[in-house]
Amino acid sequence: MSKGLVLQRAKEAFSAIVAxxxxxxxxxxxxxEPLTPRQAIGRPQRRDFALLEGREVMVEAEFKxxxxxxxxxxxxxxxxxxxxxxxxxxxxxxxxxxxxSTLNAVTSYLGTTRGTRHCRHDEPERCGAxxxxxLLKHYGRVRSGLVGYQPAxxxxxxxxxxxxxxxxxxxxxxxxxSGRFGVRIWDGKTETTRLIDSCELLLVTSSAIxxxxxxxxxxxxxxxxxxxxxxxxxxxxxxxxxxxLERICPYGH
Length: 253
Description:
Helices cover 42% and strands 19% of the residues. By secondary structure, the protein is α/β, with parallel strands linked by helices. The strands form 2 sheets. The chain has a 7-stranded mixed beta sheet, with helices on both faces. The chain has a 4-stranded antiparallel beta sheet with strand order 3-2-1-4.
């Protein structure tokens, strides 16, 4: 999968949906506003989620009473029509987050996807437990790679699969090199290839679609090695539905 291909495929599918339902010139406008951590995730017990640490921001689009969210490290406000959104330059993280959150809102409105808003309060913890349970049930105690540190998911994976069967990479310098729940966090920029090659199953944050690292991960894991890959998180809701990615997000709203 060449660079940017998954987003390009999603954009083409989105354009077809917009044309089919005559939404491009709809007078209802789309707004995207950066959310505070409390608005996005509420008050979870853990304090080391990326949203709470301020490294990433959740933006939210509203379209005809339906909402879609996306993580980004370059939040920006936007006001315009669906046609304006389709004209955004997706070479940069900020506009990509605007496009993806809008895509999530529109596909939620049309019933094409669900779980386009982040889980809140105790739900991230329950999410981690359920994801780990589902992976163990369907795949067994396989060597699993978590691309994107999410504390609840990582802890429950180590409990369900065993520390020796879990690897994790992240892009946050604060996390890289640290030990979390018995797992050393590898550098996502330099060691994700190593993670893919050493694991039998990949669980990938859908934020990778916004930060433009997803295609390389998918190509090496799925196209070249035929390994199962699951996307987690609200960011990838609409993209997963439109291009056929397997997504797991049990408590998205």
